[in-house]
């Protein structure tokens, strides 16, 4: 019996926008659609916007009157579909057969996991792993497993998880009729007749259903129950970059596994060279004799394909693993592929330096884990404490050699910036407002040099806008401080120190 996993992304367009525009997270925003001759209307809104009274169907002018700080983003169905296809390609880690639901504006992935759940420790384990991996990537997903596409879709859309084999009709009977993938006019007609649940439909004579609602309802019921077959149309992509090794007899010696791992990575290099690609994520699967499959993976800070680069990193991952049973087969797979430019000699050594830095980061990440090795990502935010964030080095799209927003030299910022500004007692100021003396840590500091003010303001759309005058001051002991005065109440704060 086939088994289908459906991955439903609630409020898909909003999720996609929040992923591509992270500055919108924590802010009220809405999706808009132009109406000929009438402006634009709201078709979806974030939870924060909803809490402030914004509703789908409102005209944008009305929504802005309700919530002036609302950010409006035009809908982009092409971008929605393109990102969902990218997610489908990423989801091939669960099965090679992954497709989009058959809809004008798809919000679900369909994955054929027939016979494949055992590789993940069973269906419950597969569901847990899939949910965890989507969540770790920043997506909210409702995932369900059933015998048919229709049954899996119905369960996922309603936030349920698992249907027992050969029981596709039973778990769905109490679900609302929108779980049948019906058109909006049909759903409206059912609502007028007071039909809210699938079991109310199935209690009606079949001929009466066809006469009253047309063929759509009967077809969807049959698809859900398996009486009418549906197939997943897989996304069209290149076959996996995989190298595998089948042992004549199961082996237990670690040194043999390490040698085979080296061979497999050399084969993988050849495959990637033929495609002119590198990879950011390499996975190794150990198929065991009479036990569950074991696997490990290695994330890279930049695309790579050379076996000489990958071998020491993957060995670091394999060496400490305690294999639970003899190994029948091994395979390595490049999970995330990126096209690499053809290599050519360089007159300067910046590229070599970047390669060495990437090697160091990847080695540290393999030993210590992703979260232990971080780098700084600059953010275009005028508020200094929000202008940079730490993130795992393996997640960076490029190494920190790239020019940052603060690299021009025109803006002076302290290397030591406090997470929260510290209140400061300024006891003397010049007539124009510059600080002359202040208390810090129980001692009085006398200012000998002062640069500023530098006015920093945040946008009006923030709930609490920031207005500050910053000064770079040097005291008699040679220490350079970065302090500011808050304009709304005149209070002073210490925000950082220059080394």
Outline the structure in words.
Among the domains are: 4-145, MutS, DNA mismatch repair protein, domain I (3-Layer(aba) Sandwich); 241-349, Dna Ligase, domain 1 (2-Layer Sandwich); 416-498, no CATH class. It is flat, with a radius of gyration of 29 Å. The chain contains 13 helices and 19 strands. It has helices at residues 12-20, 47-51, 60-66, 77-90, 123-136, 149-157, 184-192, 198-202, 206-213, 215-225, 254-275, 307-318, 350-368, and strands at residues 4-8, 29-35, 39-45, 71-74, 98-100, 108-112, 142-146, 241-251, 277-288, 294-304, 327-339, 374-378, 388-392, 416-429, 435-440, 443-457, 467-475, 480-486, 492-498. Residues 344-350 and 397-410 have low confidence and may be disordered. By secondary structure, the protein is an alpha+beta fold. The chain is 29% helix and 30% strand. It has a 6-stranded antiparallel β-barrel. It starts with a strand and ends with a strand.
């Amino acid at each position: 019996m086939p088994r289908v996993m459906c991955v439903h992304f609630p409020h898909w367009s909003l999720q996609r926008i929040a992923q591509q525009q992270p500055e919108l997270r924590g802010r009220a925003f809405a999706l808009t659609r132009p109406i000929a001759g009438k402006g634009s209307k709201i078709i979806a809104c974030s939870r924060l916007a909803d809490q402030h009274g914004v509703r789908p169907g409102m005209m944008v002018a009305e929504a802005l009157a309700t919530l002036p700080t609302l950010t409006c983003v035009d809908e982009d169905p092409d971008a929605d579909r393109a990102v969902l296809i990218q997610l489908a390609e990423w989801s091939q880690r669960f099965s090679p057969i992954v497709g989009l639901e058959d809809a004008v504006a798809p919000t679900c992935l369909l994955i054929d996991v027939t016979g494949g759940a055992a590789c993940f420790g069973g269906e419950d384990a597969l569901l847990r792993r899939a949910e965890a991996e989507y969540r770790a990537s920043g997506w909210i997903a409702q995932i369900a497993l059933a015998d048919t596409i229709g049954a899996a879709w119905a369960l996922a859309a309603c936030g349920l998880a698992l249907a027992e084999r050969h029981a596709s009709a039973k778990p769905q009977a109490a679900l609302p009729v929108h779980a049948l993938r019906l058109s909006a006019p049909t759903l409206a007609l059912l609502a007028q007749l007071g039909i809210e649940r699938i079991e109310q439909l199935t209690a009606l004579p079949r001929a009466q259903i066809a006469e009253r609602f047309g063929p759509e309802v009967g077809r969807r019921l049959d698809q859900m129950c398996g009486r009418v077959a549906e197939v997943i149309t897989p996304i069209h992509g290149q076959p996996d970059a995989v190298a595998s090794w089948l042992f004549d007899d199961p082996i237990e010696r670690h040194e043999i596994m390490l040698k085979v791992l080296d061979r497999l990575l050399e084969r993988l290099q050849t495959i990637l060279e033929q495609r002119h690609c590198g990879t950011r994520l390499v996975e190794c699967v150990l198929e065991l004799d009479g036990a569950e499959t074991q696997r490990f993976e290695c994330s890279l800070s930049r695309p790579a394909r050379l076996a000489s680069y990958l071998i020491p990193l993957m060995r670091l991952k394999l060496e400490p693993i305690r294999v639970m049973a003899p190994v029948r087969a091994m395979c390595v797979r490049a999970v995330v592929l990126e096209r690499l430019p053809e290599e050519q000699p360089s007159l300067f050594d910046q590229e070599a330096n970047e390669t060495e830095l990437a090697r160091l980061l990847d080695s540290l990440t393999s030993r210590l884990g992703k979260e232990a090795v971080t780098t700084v990502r600059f953010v275009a935010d005028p508020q200094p404490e929000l202008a940079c964030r730490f993130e795992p080095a393996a997640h960076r799209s490029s190494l920190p050699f790239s020019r940052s927003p603060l690299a021009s030299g025109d803006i002076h910022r302290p290397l030591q910036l406090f997470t929260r500004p510290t209140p400061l007692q300024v006891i003397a100021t010049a007539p124009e407002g510059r600080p002359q003396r202040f208390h810090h840590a129980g001692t009085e500091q006398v200012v000998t040099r002062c640069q500023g003010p530098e006015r920093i303001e945040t946008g009006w759309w923030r709930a609490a806008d920031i207005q500050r005058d910053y000064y770079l001051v040097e005291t008699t002991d040679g220490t350079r401080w970065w302090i500011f005065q808050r304009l709304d109440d005149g209070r002073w704060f210490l925000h950082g120190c220059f080394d």
